[in-house]
Amino acid sequence: MRCQTGLMVAMLAVAMLLVAVPACAQIADQLSAYTGANAEGYLQPLADAFGADLNSNWYHSAHIAVDGFHWGIEFPVMGVIFSDDVATFDATTQDGFTPEQTVEAPTVVGDGGSITVDGDANSQFTFPGGFDLNSFGMTVPQIRLGNYMGTEAVIRYFAIDMGDVEIGNIGLFGFGVRHSISQYMEPDFPIDMAAGLMYQSFTLGDDFIDATAFTLGIQVSKSYGWIEPYGGVSYDMFSMDVSYESDEESVEMTLDSESSVHLTLGVALGIKPVMANFEYNLASTSSFGFGLYIGM
């Protein structure tokens, strides 16, 4: 039963990533109408969501034993719910269109309808619509291994060759380390504490998206048998490079780097070897997460 449950969650994780690929192909088509500041404004909400998802749900407890081998296979799911204020941005006509006009156009997560303005000599400029997204989620399997002197490692990995699909291959690799602070406290110290960092790299297609994420922080938790509330404070960094074709012109851009302090509040439920967790992450782009843990 445990193996079947893990296999079902793994299949769901793969399915979510595969669904995202054709969606990104459509985004590339819409994005081809833009360059410069317009392209950045159009895509920025999705980049912010990507960073928020990657830098969350990589732990569910601050307890790390000083010694003794343990392992875990985990299937974290991370998501962002978009607010109305990221559904539009100030977009300006380009490519020599006259007279220059600025409108409130949809971002990639905004309304699906395009906006067309009239110019000189019966010319027109069309601002493409978005994809009417209320949320954005992702998941990737991760492995937790420990312990050595109160230290454990976390590895996230997913890669798949999409063959002839327009966007191409997808891949994610992440490596994190956490170390127990509790081991240096008095035996009756009331909570578990740990510190850790994690680096991740995500690629989609032939340089369509190349993103990196980094988080560094402190975690705390308190076990009450089958329930363990946990929390943490971290400093997150995220950057994304995008390459695409616009009117037979190659465009390369770096979206605004997202750096922020983020607060995590969550709870883990169950008794090993099977546990689940639920969390909320309060940051410049807030996110939620849940997941399943199988291990010893």
Question: Can you give keywords for this protein?
Answer:
two-stranded antiparallel ribbon; about 300 residues; elongated; alpha+beta
Any overview of this molecule?
The protein has 2 domains: about 1-80 and about 135-295, Beta Barrel (Lipocalin), CATH 2.40.128; about 85-130, no CATH class. Helix content is about 15%, strand content about 50%. It is built from 2 helices and 16 strands. It has helices at about 1-30, 35-55; strands spanning about 65-80, 90, 100-105, 115-120, 125, 135-140, 140-150, 150-160, 170-180, 190-205, 210-220, 225-245, 250-255, 260-270, 275-280, 285-295. It has a 10-stranded antiparallel β-barrel with strand order 1-7-8-9-10-11-12-14-15-16. Strands 2-3 form a two-stranded antiparallel ribbon. A two-stranded antiparallel ribbon has the order 4-5. The radius of gyration is 22 Å and the shape is elongated. The two termini are about 15 Å apart.
Write the layout of secondary structure elements.
Layout: H1 2-31, H2 36-54, E1 67-81, E2 88-92, E3 102-106, E4 115-118, E5 124-127, E6 135-139, E7 142-148, E8 151-160, E9 170-180, E10 192-204, E11 209-221, E12 227-246, E13 249-254, E14 258-271, E15 274-282, E16 287-295
Antiparallel strand pairs: 1-6, 1-7, 1-16, 2-3, 4-5, 7-8, 8-9, 9-10, 10-11, 11-12, 12-13, 12-14, 14-15, 15-16
Show unreliable segments.
1-22
Find the structural class using helix and strand composition: alpha+beta
Q: Report the sheet-strand fraction.
A: over 45%
Oligomer: single chain
- Strand elements, count: 16
User: SSE order, as H and E?
Assistant: HHEEEEEEEEEEEEEEEE
At the first level of CATH, the class of the largest domain is Mainly Beta
Helix count from the secondary structure assignment: 2
> In which order are the strands of the major sheet placed?
1-7-8-9-10-11-12-14-15-16
* Main sheet characteristics: 10 strands, antiparallel, barrel
Shape: elongated
Task: Compute the number of structural domains.
Answer: 2
The CA-CA distance between the termini, in Å, is: 16 Å
Report the mean per-residue pLDDT as an integer.
85
- The CATH topology name of the largest domain reads Lipocalin
Our Rg estimate from Cα atoms comes to 22 Å
